[in-house]
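Morning, I've got a small favour to ask if you have a moment. You're getting the sequence in one-letter code plus the fold written as tokens. Thanks so much in advance, here it is:

===
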Amino acid sequence: MALGERRRLKGVKAKATQTAEDTFVQDQFRGFKGMIQDGDLDHMEIRQVTKHLSRVYSKGEVDPQGRVHPLRFPHPDFPDL
């Protein structure tokens, strides 16, 4: 989804680079907790991460009107619910 000239995607930073239709590369910074666990507070580790977006909704079935019907799994104690 885009607002004006800005692209907004959940889980993808605004400064990410698009490498394919649903693939983005972005920087990921090591957190403070990770720095403490490694015993290295002198360096900020930055690595490149590739994000692949599937854009498939898997929590239910979407009908032609766009409404979502949740997946229902039968429970052995309550088979009729």
